[in-house]
Specification:
single chain, 387 residues, mainly alpha, 4-stranded mixed sheet, 16 helices, extended, disordered N terminus
């Protein structure tokens, strides 16, 4: 201690300095003790992300949800549309129900390869596996020519086949469908024809829905007040365009029968309809329901279980010139909050059935009833296998 080096009373000052050092040491020890104790008691708990469901676990979940929520149940027998999307692979005793924007291009190419309808080289160069020429004469259940053979195949699928389908986060799927079908700038003539046809149909339909309003106020006032100007801007210029808001208005507020006709005429309805009804998950009781989000892991499992000898083909079917995902996200962010609530309501059954979280929290109980309610379109037992 040098603090009393020049003090006349060195002994007294030296004792004072020693006491000060002891006090500081004691305070340091106390501080160290409580700091160490607090850190040991308050170690942050490591939050382990919940394990993603396997495809078979998700299939069980969907069955439980279908029993718990009767509104999720659709047809008693597969409709013609489901038979068209049901692709059998007799060689593997399996069948896959495909839907737009759920990896269908990849899966269709793989099934064509497994069925021997294309070579590995053709699979590597595949750009459009949806062409009807690939699926005639038994490529899908609907395209089996012989009625008795079709009935037999359908019964085998229901009893003996390993039934598979893939789903996707409902909102992500619809945003992807809009991006691909309404923002592409492909030079392909047929794409331009269909895009222009879709745009004209939607503009004409919204003109009736928003301005003429034949059935009264189908659209809530908060949404309607901001849409007339947008409709005029996008549909009455030199080049018609369909905004994200216009796209969702057709899905949600257009009366069901008229909306189905619009979507059917645009030839892209499989990308927009509810997943739950398109493959009739409640009735079909699938053995495996995979997701786009876990496609890689799901395929590893299916490859081993079914003895698939090929890797999954990678088909990039998105049209050239589409808006970026970031641009689509910004368009979503700019939508009126009330419209977003109706969108979440429109998608909540799919979200509920397949275990996607967060949709109910965005829905206000005060939202008015509207025309998007799912309506069952079932064939009778006798004609369910008709062409």
């Amino acid at each position: 201690c040098r603090c009393a080096a020049r003090s006349p009373n060195r002994v007294w000052m030296r004792g004072r300095c020693v006491r000060l050092l002891l006090l500081l040491s004691l305070l340091s020890f106390i501080l160290f003790y409580f700091t160490t104790r607090q850190s040991s008691e308050c170690q942050p708990t490591v939050k382990v992300a919940p394990r993603a469901l396997t495809g078979e676990e998700r299939a069980v979940l969907v069955r439980e949800r279908c029993e718990q929520y009767p509104r999720l149940q659709t047809c008693t027998y597969p409709t013609r549309g489901i038979l068209k999307r049901l692709l059998p692979v007799p060689e593997k005793r399996a069948a896959l129900c495909v839907m737009g924007k759920t990896g269908s291009s990849n899966w269709k190419t793989l099934i064509l390869l497994l069925r021997g309808r294309i070579t590995e080289e053709e699979a590597e160069n595949m750009t459009y596996p949806h062409s009807k020429e690939y699926w005639v004469d038994g490529g899908s259940v609907q395209l089996v020519n012989d009625t008795l053979e079709k009935r037999t195949l359908s019964e085998h699928i229901m009893k003996d086949y390993y039934r598979i389908t893939f789903v996707r986060d409902p909102l992500s799927r619809l945003l992807s469908a809009y991006r691909d079908k309404f923002t592409g700038t492909s030079r392909d003539r047929m794409f331009r024809v269909y895009r222009n046809r879709r745009t004209t149909l939607i503009c004409d339909s919204l003109q009736i829905l928003i301005i003429e309003r034949p059935d009264g106020d189908l659209i809530p006032q908060k949404i309607y007040s901001s849409m007339e100007e947008e409709l005029n801007r996008n549909c009455r210029g030199e080049e018609q365009t369909v905004s994200l808001a216009m796209f969702f208005l057709i899905l949600i507020f257009m009366p069901q029968d008229y909306r189905d006709k619009i979507l059917l005429d645009t030839l892209v309805n499989t990308h927009f309809n509810h997943m739950l009804s398109m493959c009739d998950h409640c009735r079909m009781k699938y053995d495996f329901i995979g997701t786009v989000e876990t496609m890689k892991e799901d395929f590893v499992y299916l490859k081993e279980k079914l003895g698939i000898e090929y890797d999954m083909p990678q088909i990039h079917s998105t049209q050239p010139g589409v808006k970026s995902k970031q641009e689509i996200q910004e368009m979503w962010n700019d939508l009126p909050y009330t419209l977003k609530q109706y969108i979440y309501m429109y998608l909540r059954d799919d979200a509920l059935a397949f275990g996607y979280q967060g949709y109910e929290s965005h829905i206000d109980d005060s939202l008015a009833p509207n025309h998007f309610e799912m309506r069952t379109k079932c064939k009778t037992k006798l004609d369910r296998f008709s062409v």
